[in-house]
Design brief:
- The protein has about 130 residues and is an alpha+beta fold.
- It contains 5 helices and 4 strands, in the order αααββαβαβ.
- It has 2 domains: about 90 residues, Winged helix-like DNA-binding domain superfamily/Winged helix DNA-binding domain (Arc Repressor Mutant, subunit A); about 30 residues, no CATH class.
- The longest helix is centred in the middle third of the chain and has 29 residues.
- The protein is rod-shaped.
- About 10% of the residues are buried.
Amino acid sequence: MDHHLLAIRVFTRVVETGGFTRAADSLRMPKATVTKLVQNLENHLQTKLFQRTTRSVSVTPEGECYYQRTVKWLAELEQMEGSMTESQSAPQGVLRIDVGGGSARQLLLPALPDFLLAIRRFRSIWGLAIGKLI
C-alpha cells in the first residue's frame, strides 16, 4: 500500500479511536510507526492535524475538516475497489438448464428465486420438457 494512503488511513484511525496508542493497537502497528506516519502526513499537508500534550490528543479544526473529507473519500475508494474485485470474481455468462418437469418442480423451481438473487450476472436459458425424455 502506498505510504501516503496508509498515512491517511492511520490518521482516520487515530481520530476514531481518540489516541495514537489505541490506533496502534487496533491497527496492530507499533505506536512509533503510527506517530511517524501522522507526522509525515502533517509535513506533507504543512498543517497540524492534532494538538498533542503529554496526556491528551485532540483534533485541530484543520484536522477535523481533513478527517471529514478523507472518511468520505476512503469510503468511495473502498466501494470502487470492491466493485472492481466483485466484477472480476463473480461468475458470469450463460447458464443453460434443461430438465424434466418433475425434477424442475421438486428441485429447481423452489431454489430458483434465491439463485437468481445471488447470481445476477448470468443470462439464463430455460428449457422444460413435458413428458418423458428420450
